[in-house]
């Protein structure tokens, strides 16, 4: 009983429970937090708080151990097939993580004549640091081409022996589509791929073995954990030298503990079911919008069958009204307690040129909330 399962999960989110008249529809910006994650943080800070350090007293040693356990927790969460060979570094989020891979891992290796491949219609956080690193090294950047469905067009992508990195995104933060990274891997065997998993981590199961990528970078705050959390997973001991496996600086102990608790919570809830729930909500919204002529859904061809929409939408649906500006639409919806994001969504140089309204759903959202949104939108369908 999927609905009963969902009701049980929804009840665990204090922000949601305290605001029954509000529909929070902006989880791609940041997720709400389940009580179990908040409890883990409070328990740690009230019974275990100490800086991580080596060997001096038990509180500190326990913190160190918790952080090592969190690294292993992430390896398991990602289905790491060779956990002894991978590195996990905790960072403040995807932006810092992607920049660290670009500046601290890639840049020192770049030589004249190298090139990197960068997705310019994805999030700026996954293009700017790569361009900066390439500029500093004086090498060229090629854009990863897209097809009409905003998927990477692997048929028009070429790699060379001098291609040093493919920066790719797992799930697109505007279109909600799975970018089919395995197709990039198929035409680029051996080329390092860095995966921006900011919108997939905690939303769909991630298997690094299946994806065959070299780096996975994400933000914890979009996946039930506290703000200021995230990680870089890297295979084959490839992690950036900055903040190496030992300790440089004080780690975000309570944040890392929240991330481990979030992974426990997500696994217990069931990522497969979470993914199906979010997709079904996204499809419900897309189908409702497709019946209203005033709205254009971005990245969605109306000819798509229901099946491929299910496949394409991971709980993120972005649209525009043909005459009401997206910012105005965002304010109108907010006055109805429908909290969406309305702007240009930090897309890179090849992204959308005008603002749009993004609705992003997570497991605490309900079909009734989607219908309430559709109802509000239908009043403006003229
Ligand atoms: N990549 C993608 C795909 C994102 O959606 C975001 C967050 N909007 C980021 C990177 C950056 O994440 P953060 O702001 O948490 O660093």
Automatic annotation (TrEMBL):
State the reactions this protein catalyses. (sulfur carrier)-H + L-cysteine = (sulfur carrier)-SH + L-alanine
Q: Which residues form the Aminotransferase class V domain?
A: 24-373
Read off the Pfam families from this record: Aminotran_5
InterPro entries membership? Aminotrans_V_dom, Aminotrans_V_PyrdxlP_BS, PyrdxlP-dep_Trfase, PyrdxlP-dep_Trfase_major, PyrdxlP-dep_Trfase_small
Keyword terms: Pyridoxal phosphate
Q: Name one GO molecular function term.
A: cysteine desulfurase activity
Q: Which cofactor does it need?
A: pyridoxal 5'-phosphate
Member of which family? Belongs to the class-V pyridoxal-phosphate-dependent aminotransferase family. Csd subfamily.
Q: What is this protein called?
A: Cysteine desulfurase
Native source organism of the sequence: Actinoplanes utahensis
């Amino acid at each position: 009983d999927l609905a009963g399962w969902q009701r049980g999960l929804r009840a665990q989110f204090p922000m949601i429970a305290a605001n029954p008249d509000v529909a929070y529809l902006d989880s791609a910006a940041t997720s709400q937090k389940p009580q179990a994650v908040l409890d883990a943080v409070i328990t740690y800070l009230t019974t275990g708080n100490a800086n991580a350090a080596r060997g001096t007293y038990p509180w500190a040693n326990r913190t160190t151990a918790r952080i090592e356990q969190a690294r292993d927790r992430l390896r398991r969460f990602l289905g790491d097939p060779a956990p002894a060979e991978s590195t996990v570094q905790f960072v403040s989020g995807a932006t810092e993580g992607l920049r660290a891979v670009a500046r601290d891992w890639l840049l020192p290796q770049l030589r004249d004549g190298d090139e990197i491949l960068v997705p310019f219609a994805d999030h700026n956080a996954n293009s700017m640091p790569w361009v900066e690193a390439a500029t500093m090294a004086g090498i060229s950047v090629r854009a990863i081409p897209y097809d009409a469905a905003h998927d990477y067009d692997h048929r028009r992508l070429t790699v060379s022996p001098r291609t040093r990195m493919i920066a790719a995104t797992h799930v697109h933060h505007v279109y909600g589509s799975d970018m089919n990274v395995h197709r990039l891997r198929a035409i680029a065997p051996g080329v390092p791929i860095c995966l921006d998993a900011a919108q997939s981590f905690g939303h769909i199961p991630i298997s690094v073995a299946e994806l065959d990528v070299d780096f996975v970078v994400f933000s914890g705050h979009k996946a039930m954990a506290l703000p200021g959390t995230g990680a870089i997973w890297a295979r084959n001991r490839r992690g950036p030298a900055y903040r190496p496996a030992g300790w440089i600086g004080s780690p975000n102990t309570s944040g890392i503990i929240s991330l481990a608790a979030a992974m426990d919570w997500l696994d217990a809830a069931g990522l497969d079911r979470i993914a199906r729930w979010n997709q079904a909500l996204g499809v419900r919204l897309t189908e409702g919008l497709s019946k209203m002529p005033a709205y254009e859904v971005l990245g969605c061809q109306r000819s798509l069958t229901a099946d491929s929409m299910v496949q394409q939408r991971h709980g993120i649906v972005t649209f525009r009204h043909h005459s009401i500006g997206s910012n105005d639409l965002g304010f109108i919806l907010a006055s109805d307690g429908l909290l969406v994001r309305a702007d240009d969504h930090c897309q890179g140089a090849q992204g959308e040129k005008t603002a749009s309204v993004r609705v992003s759903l997570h497991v605490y959202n309900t079909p009734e909330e989607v219908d309430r949104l559709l109802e509000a939108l239908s009043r403006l369908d003229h």
